[in-house]
Specification:
Layout lengths: L2 H50 E4 L2 E4 L2 H7 L2 E5 L5 E5 L11 H7 L3 E2 L2 E8 L2 E6 L14 H72 L5 H31 L7 E5 H14 L7 E5 L7 E5 H17 L6 E9 L2 E9 L19 H13 L3 E6 L2 E9 L4
Parallel strand pairs: 9-11
Antiparallel strand pairs: 1-2, 3-4, 3-7, 5-6, 6-7, 8-10, 11-12, 12-14, 13-14
Helix pairs in contact: 1-4, 4-5, 5-8, 7-8
EC number: 2.7.13.3
Main location: membrane
Pfam family, one: HisKA
C-alpha cells in the first residue's frame, strides 16, 4: 500500500469521524430544541390557565378545562396566607395549607412527588401540577468562568476524539497493510521460486552439453569457442536467477542472517583467491589493498558478504574491456569498517551505475543485491562513477 493510499484512508476515517460528530451534535441540538419546545408547551398553558381563572363577585370562574385535559394537569391557587383559595382536580394527598418553607421547596422541585410549575398572580400563587413520573426536574448552576470555557473544552474534546479515531484507524490500517503485504510477498515468493525451479532444470542441461562440446577435440576451434560462450552465458543466467531469489528474500525479510565473528583480512584474502581460481578473464588483474595495522572483526553473514563482493568483482569483469585493474580493499573508519571494490579502465568510460528509482541497467540486479546485503547488516552501499567505478560498503564493527 502506497503512502498516498494511506493518506486517502486516513482522510476517509477523518471525514467519517467528523460526520459522526456532526450527527451527534445535531442530535443533541435537536434534543435541546425539543426540550425547549416541551418547556414552552408546559409554560404556555400556565399563562393561558392564569388568564382563564377570573375572580368575579368574590368567586373564581375558570374556563380552561380543555387546557388541563390536554396535558392531564391539575390546578390550584394558593393565597398570600398559604391557604388554598381555589383548586381544580387537585389530588387529595396535596395539602390545603402551606407556609413559606413549603412554597420555597415546591416551586423549584416537587410537591408530594408531583412535578409542578408556578405563576405569581396579584391574588396569590397559581400552581399547576402534572402526573407523577411525567417530568424530571433538575437545577443546574454554572459559574460564568466555566461557561466561558465550555467552547474551548468542546474544541479540545473534538480534536482529542479525532486523534483517538485516527490512531485506532492507523493501527487497523497497519495491521491490514501487513497482512496484505505478507500475502503479496508469499505470492511473489512462490512465483519466483517456481520460475527459478523451471529455469534451473533446462539450464543445467544447456550448461552440461555446452561443456561437453567445449571439451570435444573433434570439433573445430570456432565451434568450441561458441560452446564456451554458451556455457559462460548460461552461467550468467544461473547467477541472475540466484540473485533474483536472494534479492526477493532480502526484500521480503525472509532471509535469516547467520552472523558470526568475521576476521576481515583472512576473509578478503580467501575471497580474492576464490575469485582468481574461478578463472579470471584474460587481460584483467586483481589487487588486494589491506592496511598494515590489523582490521577489526565484524558480526556478519559470511555467505552473504562474500556474495556481495563476488557480485561486484563479476560486475567489474563483465562490464569492462580487457586491461581493467580491479582492486579489493578494506580499512577502518571511525566505528565502521569500509570495504570497497574499484576498477580502473584505461581509455574507456566507466560502466553505468545501479539506480534503484528506475530499476537500473541490465546488470543492476547484482548491484541492488549488494545494497540489500549491506542494509541487512545495518550498513550502507555507496556507488561512485567517474574515471573509475567504485563501490564502498560501510559496515558497523563488531562490538567489543
Amino acid at each position: 500500500m502506497k503512502l498516498k493510499h494511506l493518506w486517502k484512508a486516513a482522510g476517509l476515517v477523518a471525514l467519517s469521524a467528523i460526520l459522526i460528530l456532526t450527527l451527534c451534535l445535531a442530535g443533541l441540538l435537536a434534543l435541546v430544541l425539543r426540550s425547549a419546545q416541551i418547556t414552552q408547551f408546559w409554560n404556555a398553558p400556565l399563562t393561558k390557565l392564569s388568564q382563564s381563572l377570573v375572580l368575579e363577585e368574590g368567586r373564581y370562574h375558570f374556563t380552561g378545562e380543555d387546557l388541563l385535559a390536554q396535558q392531564d394537569l391539575w390546578l390550584m391557587l394558593v393565597g398570600r396566607d398559604g391557604q388554598v383559595l381555589w383548586q381544580y382536580n387537585k389530588p387529595a394527598e396535596v395539602p390545603d395549607q402551606y407556609d413559606l418553607l413549603d412554597v420555597a421547596a415546591f416551586t423549584r422541585w416537587y410537591l408530594e412527588d408531583y412535578p409542578v410549575q408556578t405563576r405569581i398572580r396579584p391574588d396569590g400563587l397559581l400552581v399547576a401540577g402534572a402526573p407523577k413520573g411525567s417530568t424530571w426536574k433538575l437545577t443546574i448552576s454554572l459559574s460564568e468562568q466555566i461557561l466561558h470555557l465550555l467552547p474551548v473544552w468542546g474544541v479540545l474534546l473534538f480534536f482529542l476524539s479525532l486523534i483517538c479515531v485516527l490512531a485506532l484507524a492507523a493501527l487497523l490500517l497497519r495491521r491490514w497493510f501487513r497482512q496484505d503485504q505478507q500475502a503479496r510477498d508469499e505470492a511473489r515468493s512462490d512465483w519466483i521460486n517456481g520460475i527459478s525451479h523451471d529455469i534451473r532444470t533446462p539450464l543445467s542441461m544447456v550448461m552440461g552439453y555446452a561443456g561437453q562440446l567445449e571439451a570435444d577435440s573433434a570439433l573445430p576451434p570456432a565451434r568450441r569457442d561458441q560452446a564456451a560462450i554458451i556455457r559462460r552465458q548460461s552461467q550468467t543466467i544461473r547467477d541472475l536467477v540466484n540473485d533474483l531469489n536472494l534479492t526477493m528474500r532480502l526484500d521480503c525479510q525472509m532471509q535469516a542472517l547467520r552472523k558470526t565473528k568475521l576476521d576481515l583480512a583472512p576473509f578478503l584474502r580467501q575471497t580474492a583467491a576464490d575469485f582468481l581460481n574461478s578463472g579470471l578473464a584474460e587481460g584483467f588483474s586483481l589487487a588486494l589493498d589491506l592496511p598494515d595495522q590489523p582490521l577489526p572483526s565484524l558480526e556478519a553473514d559470511e555467505f552473504l558478504l562474500r556474495r556481495a563482493l563476488n557480485n561486484l568483482l563479476i560486475n567489474c569483469v563483465r562490464h569492462n574491456p580487457p586491461g581493467a585493474v580491479i582492486r579489493l580493499g578494506a580499512r577502518q573508519t571511525g566505528k565502521a569498517c569500509l570495504l570497497w571494490v574499484e576498477n580502473t579502465t584505461p581509455d574507456a568510460p566507466a560502466p553505468p551505475l545501479y539506480q534503484e528509482e528506475d530499476g537500473g541497467p541490465a546488470h543492476g540486479t547484482g548491484l541492488k543485491l549488494v545494497a540489500q546485503i549491506a542494509a541487512a547488516h545495518g550498513g550502507q552501499a555507496t556507488f561512485f562513477q567517474g574515471e573509475t567505478f567504485l563501490c564502498q560498503l560501510r559496515l558497523p564493527m563488531r562490538p567489543s
